[in-house]
Amino acid sequence: MTIRATFNGTVVAESDETVVVEGNHYFPPEAVKSEYLAPSDNHTACSWKGLASYKDVVVNGERAADGAWFYPDPKDAAKEIKDRFAFWKGVVVA
Known about the structure:
The protein is an all-beta fold. 0% of the residues lie in helices and 54% in strands. The strands form three sheets. Strands 5-6-7-8 form a four-stranded antiparallel sheet, with no helix packed on it. A hairpin with a 2-residue loop joins β6 and β7 (62-70). 28% of the residues are buried. The model has no long low-confidence stretch (mean pLDDT 98).
């Protein structure tokens, strides 16, 4: 089944190979349209996944600050989501 992440009416990621962790679909990096991602300096720590990095999602001038997150160097328990992107903050995943 193909899963899409959309923001402001635009598909920002699409894949039938997402990995679901804690109810979130993690998209492979090649399925994400990087032109809609902007740098963010935000990071958060998860006790079992490791340090998450964030990107803003920007489409047609609308911005979802920290709307995408990923784990560039996850802990062993979460190695299947390394470099995969998940979305929130107004980005609809369906």
